[in-house]
Amino acid sequence: MATDKKITTKRLLIGLGGALIILIVVLAILGGGGNEEGIAVETSTVEVRTVTQTVTASGKVRPEVEVKISSDVSGEIVFLELEEGDRVEQGQLLVQIQPDFYAAQREQAEASLLQAQADAARAQAEMIRAEEDRDRKTMLAERGVIAQQELETAETQYDVAKASYESAQFRVRSQRASLNQAADQLRKTSIYAPMGGTVSQLNVEPGERVVGTSQMNGTEILRIAELQDMELEVDINENDIVNVAIGDSARIEVDAYPQEPFRGVVTQIANSARVSGAGTQEEVTNFPVKIKISGNYDGATTPVQTASAEQSIPAEDMSETSPRSYRTLRPGMSGTVDIFTETVPNTVVVPIQAVTVRDFNKVDLDGDDDEEGGEEREEPTPGFNPMDEDLRRVVFLMNEGEAAMVEVETGIADDTHISVTSGLSGGETVIVGPFRTLRTELGPGDAVRVDEEGPEGRGGPPRS
Question: Under CATH, which architecture does the 226-343 domain have?
Fold first, then answer.
């Protein structure tokens, strides 16, 4: 038994020693190979092509024109033969409010007007009689038949009668205005469509009572919208709104049709901002922007354009075999828009991640990092302060196994690439990653190698 234990222990020690030797050899190979081959990086080729700057935002679909219908008078709804989604024409009767109360008011106003007219006629007759009496006594007073006091009394009675007649005329005008108002109130019990369109929202039912809008916020009965003319309203950040202009084209993706984008054009940009979280660290300033959507079908016979072809298809040709030939947008749907703000053709572009920033006061362009704030620069700039920063945009190119730093000036960018207006001509091999290496570690003259496990190392196309 003792002999077996010694053999087992010996074999265990031999196995552990062999594993340790193998580990040391592997670490040595890895360490030596890394030092000889340089920093592993990912690369791409500098291209010359068209780049388009976009601004992306999300919002809600809404009709371009939507009218809210409310009643000007209060009362019970006695007629409402509509359903949400119905098509209405301009001038069509939509809602009837119980008119009995307002009809009674009009009759009362008519009676009051007739009474006022009768009073005015009586006052006029009294004024004429008082005028004749005054004229007669004037002649008698001139002949000395009556005393002067009687003439003065006649003149006073005429003045009073004349004032009464004028007052009666004013009452007639007042009662006529009341009659017109009562007639207008009665007329408003019938609500007609101010425009043709689709009932996009219906809030009441027959028999319900509504509150008029003359003195307060009334009851919203329904909404009429032109659903074939839709728009997407989005909020764009204040940093991006300066790039957006009326007339910019756009690509709209509605969540309900993820694979069928719509075309659009910017039609309105708000002058006033919407501020959320004011006074807090989460304060955000956005500007509402409206984008007209092309290619919507509202259920009518209006020809519309499909997303896949520049052609019009009348509604009667829609069949069950092609239910997606028409795409119906409804108010409230969510969507995302890419607004194309600027396009530059035939420009040098690099992947966005290839452009980084370096402080030229802390970089030795000969290949050695200056850790002392630029004290080793051969020719310091006049007035140079080691504590100042001289930040510039640069890219790193592959140059015979070394990283060559090139200062660049950039222009517009899209989602993946940024244009380079100076510093590159196209065709160069630019270093695009890893991010941490590009951000802080890589310097001019550093030995680099293409990462064999990156996009190129796996046999795939260069990152672009």
Answer: Beta Barrel (2.40)
